[in-house]
Amino acid sequence: MITLLADGREESVEGLVVPHGATILGWERKPHGWCRGDACVPAFRAAAAESEDGVDLVRFAGLLGRQAAVDLDEGVVAIGEPADSDLDTAPDFGPLPGLRGTKVALVFWASWCGCRYDLPAWEALHRELAGYGFSVVSVSLDRDPKDAAEWLADVTHPAVVDDDGRIAELYNVINVPTVVWVDEEGRIARPQDTMTATDTFRSMNGLSSERAVAALRRWVIEGDAGTTTRRLRPPTDDERLARLHARLAAWLFRRDRSAAAERHLATAAGLAPHDLAIRRGLMPLNGVDPFGEEYFKLREELESAGVAIYRPLPDWQEETR
């Protein structure tokens, strides 16, 4: 048996070749091809993944534009999200569909980031601006929900924990704090920015929370998003694949298979060395202090290579990092 990690779920399959007649990733075989709702993969295209024995799961995922990371020795495979060409629309997850008609700030954070101290300020903005049709939705990138729990104890805004990294994958989040603005129609009003709600770590990130929060209020109250960039930054193929190896690493760490987990973590780091959501985010599962020496070594490595740790848009960027 193989464990399949896909679509935010975990299930067991007999192997990478799925018997004919089975549903694959939510798709069903029809006479004219494979269909899911109104979408169909024509039979002539699907033939590339089909054989007398069944349907090759990894090849079928490829037909859907979904990458796969496979570890047959450990009996696990991760299937990623499709490469989304609609970068203007916010991908749905959790509470987001229920907030149509409301402006939303998606606030990505983690307990391993100093940005956890900004949560009370985000909660205050959520309450202050609720009357203008605004909501904060906070997304913790913690791999263990228990690590996020104490920081969420007093919040009233919608909050989720992205313990499998799927939401970070959907929004191409490579570090925290990252904030995405979503308008009333579910469209991107402002893409992945480094945005702070307090100046607690201004000496490290060089960013003014005053300017950022003023811009947020202006958008919520006046409708001025202050930018013409209203599309998510797309991930590269390597970044997408790195997240799948990180998903395997997290799954293996949780089962005390450290050697295999570290192998996938190394692969992820090689594919996307700049992705701190992966490299720092997995440190707690590996018994490494995410505030300790290993993090500062990683930070120095990236800064020496000229890799920007923070990604603000220019209108609230004070220094180039």
TrEMBL record:
Alphabetized InterPro entries for the sequence: AhpC/TSA, Thioredoxin-like_sf, Thioredoxin_domain, Thioredoxin_ResA/DsbE_sf
Pfam families xref list: AhpC-TSA
Thioredoxin domain boundaries: 84-218
Transmembrane portions of the chain: none
Entry's Gene Ontology molecular function annotations: antioxidant activity; oxidoreductase activity
Protein name: Thioredoxin domain-containing protein
Organism, scientific name: Streptosporangium carneum
Origin organism lineage: Bacteria, Bacillati, Actinomycetota, Actinomycetes, Streptosporangiales
